[in-house]
Design a protein that fits this description.
- The protein is of the alpha/beta class.
- The protein is 43% helix and 17% strand.
- The chain is built from 14 helices and 12 strands.
- The protein has a 6-stranded mixed beta sheet with strand order 1-2-4-3-5-11.
- The longest helix is centred in the C-terminal third of the chain and has 23 residues.
- It is elongated and about 85 Å long.
- It starts with 7 loop residues before the first helix and ends with a helix.
């Protein structure tokens, strides 16, 4: 794809991405072929770091006390651009959320920007962020200082549609354990307190609650443990639930109402229960509108046609820990479209589509669009000054 307006800087960045295109697609396919779960992405990290190390990026591994988190840095300019790479997969489905594409795109954009970093006064940082699917790697890295020098944070996520101003839901990831009393289910059931029945009552209550939820509130879960044998009254049972809402305030309200349902199950069966938070709470995406406008121009310049802005809020994308980042740092999390044959994320069909020809095009187009966005922002005094001022204010608050 030729650079717009014969711009030499953009052309140099684009050419670096083009030169690495085969390597980037191979990286995407290699990650896809060997999926790894949250906080265990050791081989994936090694694959992602290889082209960055070869290009001369300074690598800091195990940041934020997370073995599979990293920072790869190039340049020394005052405007630090953060490119978030995700690489964890889903249990039993592999890369059905396309994180192989996300990681390869972050690397591609970084290679493009490294070519022009000195000219533009940039520092380019690839942030290796583990455990997006479950565990909140970005939240932990944010809390532990890995984003402290980042002036703008970007990534692209694959999906079945092209969405620039993608929205997500706030998320609470909880586990609820019910404690009862074991007994022989036939010889002495009166001595038992059935933790499995507590789960049943709680789930019925949650099901009835659904008809009274506010728009955007969701809850869904599975039974993680329900007993060990039919002839033993279950003394312990566990459910795993996600609670979601359009924003953090709505999520707090939903959490209170769902907690009452869990308490009802315990009360009705004579059991006790405990609610545990299993991962950091994800906040909703709040993308930076100015950066979105720049990205929209770049992605449409590559021949892609995003959905209309007025339709974006009707297409929530589940939840992401990138929401926490965008609540602190100017950032974007657009969706880049691939042809998934009607499949959506977290379906086997989407996993298969994440290495097809359209997915490979998304890796290259996403790399170009992110790099071009950073270039446009770096050369615009208003954008640049705004981001640097926000960074100074944030760092003063941290100190």
């Amino acid at each position: 794809m030729p650079a717009p307006r014969s711009d030499a800087t953009v052309a140099a960045s684009d050419e670096a991405v083009a030169a690495a295109s085969r390597r980037l697609i191979e990286l995407s396919h290699a990650l896809h072929a060997e999926p790894e779960l949250a906080f265990a992405e050791t081989r994936s990290v090694a694959k992602v770091l290889e082209p960055l190390r070869e290009r001369g990026f300074e690598i800091e591994s195990g940041v934020a006390d997370l073995p599979t988190a990293f920072r790869a840095r190039y340049g020394s300019g005052p405007l630090t651009v953060g490119l978030c790479a995700e690489y964890d997969a889903l249990p039993g489905m592999g890369h059905a959320c396309g994180h192989n594409i996300i990681a390869a795109t972050a690397v591609g954009a970084a290679l493009g920007l490294a070519e022009v970093a000195d000219e533009l006064g940039l520092t380019v940082v690839v942030l290796g962020t583990p455990a997006e699917e479950s565990g909140g790697g970005k939240v932990l890295m944010l809390e532990r200082g890995s984003f402290d020098d980042i002036a703008m944070a970007m990534m692209v996520h694959p999906g079945p549609a092209e969405i620039v101003g993608a929205r997500s839901l706030a998320l609470a990831d909880i586990g609820v354990v019910f404690h009862g009393r074991e007994a022989h289910a036939s010889a002495a059931p009166e001595l038992g307190r059935n933790a499995g029945d507590a789960v049943t009552i709680a789930q019925v209550a949650l099901g009835l609650l659904r008809q009274h939820l506010r728009p955007g509130q969701q809850l869904h879960g599975i039974v993680g443990e329900g007993g060990v044998a039919p002839n033993i009254v279950p003394g312990r049972a566990e459910v795993l639930y996600y609670l979601r809402a359009v924003d953090s305030a709505s999520l707090d309200e939903l959490t209170r109402r769902a907690s009452a349902c869990f308490a009802a199950g315990a009360l009705a069966t004579g059991c006790t229960h405990e609610i545990r938070t299993l991962a950091p709470t994800y906040t909703e995406l709040t993308p930076d509108t100015a950066l979105l406008s720049v990205y929209r121009e770049q992605i449409t310049g590559l021949g892609r046609v995003p959905i209309a802005p007025e339709l974006e809020e009707r297409r929530p994308l589940g939840s992401t820990d990138m929401g926490n980042v965008t609540n602190v740092i100017p950032g974007i999390h657009p969706v880049i479209g691939i042809d998934a044959g009607g499949a959506v994320t977290h379906q086997p069909g989407f996993a298969a589509a994440s290495v097809n020809a359209s997915a490979d095009r998304a890796v290259i187009d996403g790399s170009l669009a992110l790099a071009r966005t950073a270039i446009a922002v770096a050369r615009d005094e208003l954008h640049r000054d705004r981001l640097l001022q926000r960074l100074v204010q944030r760092q003063e608050g941290i100190r």
